[in-house]
Amino acid sequence: MGEILQSIQSIDPVAFSIGPFVARWYGLSYLVGFIAASGLAYHFAKKWKVDLSFDDLLTVLIGISLGVIIGSRIGFVLFYQPAHFLANPLQIIAFWDGGIAGMSFHGGLIGAIIGAIIAARIIKMPALRLGDLVMIGTPIGLGLGRMANYINGELWGRVTEVSWGVIFPAAGPLARHPSQVYEALLQGLLIFVVLFVIAQIAAKKGKPPAQGSIVGAFLVLYGAVRIFAEFFREPDSQLGFLISNWFTMGMLLSLPMVLVGAFLLWRARKSQAQSEK
Question: What pTM does this model have?
Answer without folding.
Answer: 0.86
